[in-house]
Design a protein that fits this description.
- The structure is a single chain.
- The protein is α+β, with helices and mostly antiparallel strands.
- It has two domains: 33 residues; 98 residues, no CATH class.
- The chain contains five helices and six strands; from the N terminus they run βββββααβααα.
- The longest helix is centred in the middle third of the chain and has 16 residues.
- The model has no long low-confidence stretch (mean pLDDT 85).
- The structure holds zinc ion (ZN).
- Zinc ion binds next to loops.
- Keywords: ATP-binding, DNA-binding, Metal-binding, Nucleotide-binding, Repressor, Transcription, Transcription regulation, Zinc, Zinc-finger.
- It holds the Pfam family Zn_ribbon_NrdR.
């Protein structure tokens, strides 16, 4: 945490306190360089991510939907549940680190495909064929080419 006065990276926490409802942690800090004090607040970030579907309507990002899609593709395949979770974590982090809060469903599909290809070829092809139902053949071919 940078000091807001001198931008030093060396700060110490003097005191941490939960808010009454437990949703915010308040930390009193002191800069080790200029000795000024300041307060930071730590709270849970609500994931406000919108998915733009092919037909143009917009949905809230739903981690569970991605999980279900991957689990279905991995059925009877030697895909570890933890590996699936880490794929989803990875994709979610990527989406949250983007500047935009909107992403198209086909971009999400691409992210999943890229990772599934490394995990399991059969799961990859299954997911790709489900993906095909929602997108046209041309786009499907383009994606397969891109992923190589
Ligand atoms: Zn400072």
């Amino acid at each position: 945490m940078l000091c807001p006065y001198c931008s030093s990276q060396e700060t110490s926490v003097l005191e941490s306190r939960d808010s009454e409802d437990g949703t915010v942690v308040r930390r009193r800090r002191e800069c080790n360089k200029c000795r000024k004090r300041f307060t930071t607040y730590e709270r849970v970030e609500i994931i406000d991510l919108k998915v733009v579907k092919k037909e143009g309507h917009v949905e809230d990002f739903d981690r569970e939907k991605i999980r279900q899609g991957i689990i279905k593709a991995c059925e009877k395949r030697p895909c570890d549940e933890e590996e699936i979770e880490s794929i989803i974590d990875d994709i979610e982090m990527r989406l949250l680190n983007r500047k935009s809060t909107e992403i198209s469903s086909s971009d999400i599909g691409r992210l999943v495909l890229t990772r599934l290809k490394k995990l399991d070829q059969v799961a990859y092809l299954r997911f790709a064929s489900v993906f095909l139902e929602f997108d046209d053949v041309k786009e499907f071919k383009k994606i397969i080419r891109e992923i190589g």
